[in-house]
Amino acid sequence: MKSKHLTGDQLLAALSALSNPHRLRVVGALAAGGRNYVSQLARELNISRPLLHLHLQKLEEAGLVSSQLELSEDGKALNFFEAAPFAIDLSPAAIAEAVKTLTNNPEK
């Protein structure tokens, strides 16, 4: 996700996803440690797997993380996540441009 290409809706989704401390920790852990599977990431962050799944889903919907399902040597399905490359420009000019593309724009 490049900052120059963010629509208003994408900007809102990214900011909403990052507005939660658990999700900030998830992105931070993936950025620092690289890709990881859900169970291991849950242990490292001391969070339940179901709650982590909810946070990962929100982050993935916003394009901030990506996932890939892989089979382990013993046949278990492991869902690996990694931080997606992104940069968000929060300058007034960038926000003014993003506002023009909001699908729920009260000004129209």
TrEMBL record:
Q: Which domain of life is it from?
A: Bacteria
Residues in domain HTH arsR-type? 13-86
Q: Which GO terms describe its molecular function?
A: DNA-binding transcription factor activity
Q: Please give the name of this protein.
A: Helix-turn-helix domain-containing protein
Which Gene3D superfamilies is this protein grouped with? Winged helix-like DNA-binding domain superfamily/Winged helix DNA-binding domain (1.10.10.10)
Entry's InterPro entries?
ArsR-like_HTH (IPR011991), HTH_ArsR_DNA-bd_dom (IPR001845), WH-like_DNA-bd_sf (IPR036388), WH_DNA-bd_sf (IPR036390)
Kindly list any coiled-coil regions of this protein.
none
Ranges that cross the membrane: none
